[in-house]
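Let's practice the habit of predicting before peeking. Look at the sequence and jot down your guess about where helices and strands might fall. Then scroll down.
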Amino acid sequence: MEYQLLGNSDLNISRIGFGGMSLKSVQHDEAITLLQSAFQQGINFFDTADMYEHGRNEEIIGKAFRDIRDKVIIATKVGNQWRADGSGWDWNPRKDYILKCVDDSLKRLQTDYIDLYQLHGGMITDSRDEVVDAFEQLRKEGKIRYYGISSIRPNVIRAYMQENRNIKSVMLQYSLADRRPEEEVLDTLLQHNIGVLVRGALAQGLLAGKPAKEYLDHSTESIRIAFEAISSISGPHRSTAQTAIRFVLRHPAVASSVIGVRNTVQLKDAIEVFDTPELAEEDYSYLKQSIRQNTYSDHR
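Done guessing? Here is the structure:
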């Protein structure tokens, strides 16, 4: 496993992270075993959110690591409020709500601090002063170590950077099939030394062998061609999933690719990424040429 500091924090995270959201389809005891196995094989960064399974996801991660809390880096998120009737959720970035939620997350995670607390979304109309005030208060109280945002909206990301907010990371969606961050966001985050956490590197599994379908603004045929390009430079030395992950990790802004893992086979494939050769420059260029680069159309 390789490790990298997250932005200008002192969080030395594994370059393959474990995305807790994938555990919703895994039985409780199997999920605990899978999490612990991931740690034993080198993954130290685990990402979850208070809204995943109404908090049960945090509970599983908390139980898995309660005896080795100081050896793992736990990230969770806040901002989506479940409705009382369970019919869905509403966006709530208010300071009082954030301050309430952190205590609930700490209890579920069985810890007295969160390594990385992330705003789970964000709109340009939000009061960023209120959000940052909440995070700064929690940091001073020792309840969180660092904070960041999870957003694919360029205008929101840019606003937090330009206003010199003390964010340490941005989690965003990025893959060969979703190269929107390449237009501006990745380079800008790199210049500001803000760590990038990638989700969706496999594009819902389409870049790892699932049947091609329309994805974002790409046609089924475009996705098929992109996967064929990945397959052509993969093989016994590197699986298609590993090639797709290697693609996103090649950008210098990316600190970690957070992968959804549901079983030991997927875990093994993710962990062994660093046993495979890096993408050669010609292969990297070939993959980029295999599919049109898309760009953000909204929230610019």
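How did you do? The mean pLDDT is 94.
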